[in-house]
Amino acid sequence: MGDDTGNFFAVRCGSFQDCFSPLLAEAVAVRESLVWAGDRSFQNFQCESNSFHIFQASRNPSIDLSEIGQVMEDIKELLSTITGAILTHTRRQANNASHIIARWGLSVSNACDWDDQPPTLISDLLTEESVMP
């Protein structure tokens, strides 16, 4: 997660059971990120997703009846209750750090958290991305 200017401030990774589609896995990851952020009283941050479907669904006021509908309703509720929380769409090619963390998260049995400083497995990548035009 980044602050409202896009700078790193915290990340969490882990694996989810019973996610049988990439779309559902992405939606569950967004929901769990927002729950985690809310539990820690984070404010004014952006949560990034590379799924344009999830991004659009989070802005749709209608009840979502799709396969990820309940998860999307949870996401909308969480976004409405956390001060300054926004969900943004980021193209996969511009979101390399989160994919590295997600892949690593598949290999751990418990969730892993990092605050203030990014994990070493992505710190070089974040530095590179911050100087790119």
UniProtKB/TrEMBL annotation:
Stored InterPro entries: RNase_H-like, RNase_H-like_dom_plant, RNaseH_domain
Coiled coil: none
PANTHER family cross-referenced by the UniProt entry: OS05G0353850 PROTEIN, RNASE H TYPE-1 DOMAIN-CONTAINING PROTEIN
GO molecular function: nucleic acid binding; RNA-DNA hybrid ribonuclease activity
Name listed for the protein in its UniProt record: RNase H type-1 domain-containing protein
Domain RNase H type-1: 3-104
